[in-house]
Design brief:
The complex is a heterotrimer.
Chain A (H helix, E strand, L loop, with lengths): L6 H23 L17 H5 L6 H33 L4 H9 L6 H15 L5 H25 L3 H9 L4 H12 L1 H17 L2 H6 L7 H12 L3 H23 L1
Chain B lengths: L2 H8 L2 H24 L16 H8 L1 H34 L5 H13 L2 H15 L5 H25 L5 H7 L4 H30 L2 H6 L7 H10 L4 H30 L1
Helix pairs in contact in B: 2-12, 3-12, 4-5, 4-7, 4-9, 4-11, 5-7, 7-9, 8-9, 9-12
Chain C lengths: L33 E12 L7 E12 L3 E5 L6 H9 L6 E6 L2 E2 L10 E4 L11 H11 L4 H14 L15 H13 L5 E5 L7 H18 L2 E6 L2 H7 L2 E6 L2 E6 L1 H6 L4 H6 L4 E11 L2 E6 L3 E6 L9 E6 L4 E4 L7 E9 L4 E7 L2 E7 L15 E6 L5 E3 L2
Helix pairs in contact in C: 2-3, 2-4, 3-4
Classes of the chains: A mainly alpha, B mainly alpha, C alpha+beta.
The structure holds adenosine-5'-diphosphate and magnesium ion (MG).
Chain lengths: ~250, ~270, ~400
């Protein structure tokens, strides 16, 4: 019991309202029949939802985002798994330090990451290419994958690995046949988080790509800034609905 | 078990290398960025000796000063207002655990799950629909709103770890609800409030996407300014200002971590 | 000397809205005045929801001033709920709750002349011992000098002077318990509520604190309402005990009453140990009746209330009052199934027809009393007045 006043409830309600209002306000805008972003007056249309199926613009960007997200998430998960299993197996004296070092980039301001990656990609000639974008996303994502996989490893019984080795498995065999299968849920979680993060990454993406390689967030950005395209509202609604579905799905699992 | 086997278990070169490689991979871009901010030459690729001249340029640049000032003012106000909201929300949701607590929690953290670009679009559309002209005010409102979830989580965690009979004990000892809150609940929440505020402050200070969309023509913040500078080309000045932002974030996170540790000892 | 530490006549908190009808100092003059009274008290948690749970069912209770009163019952029976209703932390669902004559049912905790020692003490972790003890006095707006004087007295009272400037998290359970006690006593409440204050302590300390609490209550003259699930604790400390089971008040009385004259199977079983045997009334004449026990025979016992011939009752006999003898004697018989040596006594487990019984013999087979081994047949004797007749 933390105070009997209603003030807390009032603030909670107001905060919730502020947070949800814009997300809800976007919905009617996506049904406008007009060519520019506006509130529909009586007439509704699905034309901007259909516009998303244009293979040259929106579909192409969704494809690019998907490709980048799959590549980045697989690479980031593999790297994070290698790093985490390495630490878990060898337990070096510097283990805690190394883990801290890998997690620390989480606090780097997005703009600093963007400038740094822009600088790096410019030097190696990968600016505005799919490999360059994947590299950038991997750098941004790896710390989060490491958190998920270290969590799974910390729940793993060390004796499992010893038993496998005792039964004559080589180190590689024990990793692929004992450790990895046992942390498969952690690996999946790490991969999924990476996928989502890469799919929606925008602050760095906007800096390091945009002419040849246009991801979905980048196209939203451009179409909003350049010509107030209502398709932006339509795709936003789709993403909000998708997020809600994911949350509901996770809730119903637990 | 033979010693050979034991050694084999500990010394496996591949993974050690991978671990170190991972760290190098993560830090290379930032380290290079920081190093070249101290370059004496104009080039961002050729080293011409150590110098602080780019930092001097940054500090002398009126536009950067204005942008930085805007960023700090917005971050201070946004973090403070968001913390007040978050405090009220945390008290309400932890109180009513059995009722709407679960739902309130989902609502308050929902914006953390939605892609940032979508939140940005939604905020912009909302401001346009309501008819608020874009500028400093819209940046501030947007920042207050997206900071609430970040301020909320540490405060809620702190409140949940607090002994729920303490306010009862205060009331038992003749404290009115207001006095009990001020003398007991609030002091015990201070570590949560501080980390919530700092987190909100950092998030506000660093934000680029939402700010850029709701800023309108006039107003600018430090991340927006850096983006503008970068579009004109990479200069060591950009390196210097980016490095400064990184330093600011690191210091704030360190402070927050130290305060968290002190709070736990308490 | 200690008597001076707390004034024997607790005055009500100055700005408390719960002004008592009895004037300060009147408590000892009217030792039989009522400190707390609940009438037809019901408490339902989550009223109207599917998880509605009735924690207290029509409880009527009257607690006298200056009494050490104990609420005793198994875990989950509603003791804490009753205490929280008295303290104002929980709203009652129906009924009334009076403290020194005033209906406090709708008053918040801060308006009641009552203080509480919480189950986990609930000491304020960011305050020193001194500040914790001073808190209630400060909230009452007492002058600084008086606050300081009282805090010093309290520190002496609970022997915590050395720890006055320490924080609670650096102290042991026993020390925290003393601080919680001092904090609750400092505002000189008219009623002190204690929720299992000894349960977190180890056995030695618990036994020591029993005596301390009891003498503290006598010295201060404050009415204590003490909650425990430990029957030994309740019998040792209390002037009167209320036994609660599953939200029902089972019996109220002195420790002797409760132990010697249980009025229900629950009380007979929960307080100490009892053999409970189903029986039928065979014959009833005045204050005595004869009871048939299936596969066992007939026994005589005094009765307190009217019984009908053929009525179903339960007989309760304490193990130490069941006397075993050699089989040549007349009357009920049993077979020893097990013998357990307990040091100061020997316990026999017996079977008589379908009944399993326990008998405890203080010195076992040593000195005079006969000892028995598993398999032996024994005759059962009952000390006069040892059989209690229970109707429920
Ligand atoms: N806040 C509550 N909400 C719902 N049920 C409760 C609550 N508090 C206690 N109960 C239930 O009421 C009953 C009595 O609880 P309590 O008074 O704490 O018992 P005791 O102190 O005797 O162990 C228990 O069954 C408990 O589960
Ligand atoms: Mg209890």
């Amino acid at each position: 019991m933390f105070g009997r006043s209603r003030l807390g409830g009032f603030f909670a309600g107001l905060a919730g309202l502020f947070l949800l209002l814009p997300l809800v306000a976007v919905i009617p805008f996506s049904f406008t029949p007009k060519r520019f972003l506006s509130m529909p007056d009586g007439e509704y249309s699905l034309r901007h939802y259909l516009a998303i199926f244009d293979p040259d613009t929106w579909l192409a960007s969704i494809g690019t985002s998907t490709l980048v997200a799959i590549l980045s998430s697989v690479i980031a998960t593999a790297l994070a798994a290698a790093f985490s299993i390495g630490i878990w197996l060898r337990r070096p004296a510097s283990g805690r330090f190394l883990i801290g070092l890998v997690l620390l980039p989480i606090i780097v301001p997005p703009v600093t990451s963007a400038v740094a990656l822009y600088f790096l990609l410019a030097q190696i000639g990968l600016l505005d290419t799919i490999p360059g974008l994947v590299l950038s996303h991997v750098v941004m994502i790896v710390p989060f994958s490491v958190i998920a996989i270290l969590g799974a490893l910390s729940r793993l019984d060390r004796n499992l690995e010893l038993a496998a080795r005792n039964l004559g498995a080589s180190q590689l065999q024990s990793i692929f046949r004992v450790i990895l299968p046992n942390i498969r849920f952690g690996l999946f979680a790490a991969w999924f988080v990476s996928l989502v993060m890469s799919w929606e990454e925008s602050s760095v993406t906007l800096f390091v790509s945009g002419v040849n390689v246009i991801t979905l967030p980048k196209r939203i950005w451009d179409n909003l800034r350049l010509d107030l395209d209502p398709a932006v509202a339509a795709i936003s609604v789709i993403m909000i609905v998708a997020t809600t579905l994911v949350i509901l799905l996770r809730k119903s699992e637990t | 078990m033979s010693t050979a086997r034991l050694r084999d278990l500990r010394v496996f070169p591949g993974f050690g290398l991978l671990s170190v490689g991972c760290v190098v991979f993560l830090y290379a871009p930032i380290v290079v960025l920081a190093i070249y901010s101290f370059n004496d030459g104009r080039s961002v690729t050729r080293w011409a000796g150590f110098s602080l001249r780019w930092y001097q340029t940054v500090f002398a640049n009126q536009n950067i000063q204005t942008a930085a000032m805007n960023s700090v003012v917005i971050a201070v106000i946004a973090a403070s207002v968001a913390t007040v909201f978050a405090l009220g929300a945390a008290i309400a949701t932890v109180n009513g655990k059995k009722g709407g607590g679960e739902g309130a929690y989902v609502v308050l953290t929902f914006p953390l799950m939605v892609p940032e670009i979508v939140t940005a679009v939604a905020s912009l559309v909302f401001f346009v629909a309501v008819g608020i002209s874009l500028g400093f005010a819209t940046i501030l409102i947007a920042h207050i709103v997206f900071c609430i979830p970040f301020a909320y989580l540490p405060i809620k965690a702190r409140l949940e770890s607090m002994d729920a009979t303490l306010p009862s004990a205060a009331a038992d000892l003749y404290a009115s609800p207001a006095k009990g809150f001020l003398r007991i609940t609030l002091p015990l929440l201070v570590p949560g409030l501080v980390s919530g505020w700092l987190l909100a402050f950092i998030i506000s200070l660093d934000d680029f996407i939402i700010t850029a969309l709701v800023a309108g023509p006039g107003a600018t913040t430090l991340p927006l300014h850096i983006y503008g500078m970068l579009r004109l080309g990479m200069t060591p000045e950009v390196n210097a200002i980016s490095t400064l932002m990184l330093a600011a974030s690191t210091v704030l996170v360190l402070i927050s971590g130290l305060l968290g540790q002190a709070g736990r000892k308490h | 000397m200690q008597r001076a530490i707390i004034e024997p006549n607790p005055t009500p908190p100055a700005d408390s809205k719960a002004a008592s009808p009895s004037k300060p100092g009147s408590l000892l003059q009217h030792p039989n005045s009522v400190a707390a009274e609940v009438r037809n008290l019901r408490k339902i948690y989550n009223v109207g929801s599917p998880q509605a749970h009735e924690a207290l069912k029509d409880v009527n209770l009257s607690i006298r001033a200056n009494e050490f009163f104990t609420l005793l019952g198994p875990s989950g029976c509603g003791k804490t709920t009753l205490l929280r209703i008295l303290g104002g932390f929980e709203m009652l669902t129906s009924g009334t709750c009076r403290i020194f004559g005033e209906d406090v049912s709708r008053l918040p905790p801060e308006a009641r002349p009552v203080n509480t020692v919480f189950q986990q003490y609930a000491l304020f972790p960011h305050m020193t011992v001194r500040r914790n003890i001073a808190f209630g006095l400060e909230m009452l707006g007492k002058p600084k000098a008086e606050v300081e004087r009282t805090v010093e007295r309290m520190l002496d009272l609970v022997h915590m002077r050395e720890y006055a400037d320490r924080r609670p998290d650096t102290m042991s359970g026993g020390q925290r318990q003393r601080v919680a006690l001092a904090r609750a006593l400092a505002p000189q409440p008219k009623l002190l509520l204690l929720d299992e204050p000894l349960s977190a302590l180890d056995l030695k300390l618990r036994q020591k604190m029993r005596l301390e609490l009891k003498s503290l209550q006598r010295e201060t003259g404050i009415t204590f309402i003490f909650v425990t699930h430990d029957q030994e604790e309740a019998l040792a400390m209390s002037d009167r005990v209320a036994v609660i089971s599953n939200g029902h008040l089972q019996q109220v009385g002195t420790p002797e009453d409760i132990y010697e004259q249980p009025q229900s199977r629950f009380v007979a079983d929960f307080i100490g140990e009892s053999n409970l045997i189903e029986a039928k009334v065979a014959d009833s004449a005045g204050s005595e009746a004869a009871f048939d026990i299936e596969g066992f025979g007939q026994v005589q016992a005094p009765i307190g209330q009217r019984v009908e011939v053929g009525q179903q009752v339960w007989l309760s006999i304490r193990p130490e009052r069941l006397v075993l003898g050699a089989v040549h004697r007349e009357g009920p018989q049993a077979t020893v199934t097990d013998r357990t040596y307990l040091g100061n006594a020997v316990e026999y487990h017996l079977r008589a027809g379908k009944h399993a019984l326990t008998a405890r013999s203080p010195r076992g087979g040593l000195r005079g009393r006969q000892d028995f081994a598993p398999g032996d047949a024994v005759s059962l004797g009952f000390e006069p007045g040892s059989i209690k007749v229970l109707l429920s």
